Amino acid sequence: MEERQFRLNEYIYSSLISGLFKEGKSEDAMNLWKEMIKKGCKPNSVVYSALIDGLCRVGKPDEAEEVLFEMMNKGCIPNAFTYSSLMKGFFDSGKSDKAIQIWKEMAKNNCICNACNFLLIVETLGCKPYGGCEWYQTDILESSKQ
């Protein structure tokens, strides 16, 4: 694209990174991320979220969490999608407690959860509306009120 004088910005990079991960080309996605940084394109929350989601899709939620910390240290604010991707990554890797910890961090950071966040937790934990995982329900609902 650059040969034709197209300037790649953070939104184009985020789409490309996301697409590469979805096509199973995680190494290419990571190389593109490194290229973006090397070329001086400053990542925003959209690019960070695409990278976090992609890493979780390929079973690397711990690496994705490191990206979340980097994101926050650089002043980018994660949104509900960012947190949902990370929670799903931890749930899928069998680390439910870590996913719940991310949920609590989301509430602590004043990120407004949405129906997708609640649904992810309810479906993943196999909660029934009136029983099945009461201790998680109480804990989760209380943390989301903070």
From TrEMBL:
It comes from the Eukaryota. This is Uncharacterized protein. It comes from Pistacia atlantica.
